[in-house]
Design goal:
Elements (H helix, E strand, L loop, with lengths): L12 E6 L6 H14 L4 E5 L5 H9 L8 H25 L3 E5 L2 H10 L4 H9 L7 E6 L2 H11 L10 H13 L5 E5 L4 H16 L2
Parallel strand pairs: 1-3, 1-4, 2-3, 4-5
Helix pairs in contact: 1-8, 2-3, 4-5, 4-7
Amino acid sequence: MGYNLYMRPGAGKFIVFEGIDGSGKTTISKLFFKYLKNKNINTSWFREPSDSKWGKKIRELADEMDSIPIDEEFKYFLKDRKWDVENNLRPSLKNGDIVILDRYYFSSACYQGARGMDVEMIISENRKFSPEPDLLFLIDVDIPTAMNRIRNSRDVEAKLFEKESFLLKVRKNYLDLKYDFIKVIDGKESIDNVLGSVIEEFEQFFLP
């Protein structure tokens, strides 16, 4: 099909994968990246938090969510995202890549929103400097499915941000997002079916 569109310099496209813990979004984003690479399409895969010093700090703090005030944590996310935009996202988009990102500022909004911050404020602050996605795949699963996957894949007890009541709030925040570029994908299906749905939406969006 007409994928040569994405080989032109400066014709990069930005695709984000979002979802609660246990949704399978990271697995699907990596499989989609592999799918594009196999078609010899220029593509890049990144994740947030990034590998900046701020991103590493955020991951260290993930075990102790209340170790710093939430507004300070929010500032860490902003600094990490600014680094990611400057060093990863914009250069790759300028190069003409299809950029795949595992989590973006919508995660910040939905997770920190579930802890009491204003969702729209978080999004507004991030949109001041962050490029908007061409497509955002929300890999959606119900809470029992997510919790079963978390328990089956991890040796330790689920952390605070993976508790059922918390994830319920996060999922609601995700489903309340209303942007034309969001495509909700049923994540309860098999990996092959979820990936197939992502590919179908991708092709319908970019290759009408």
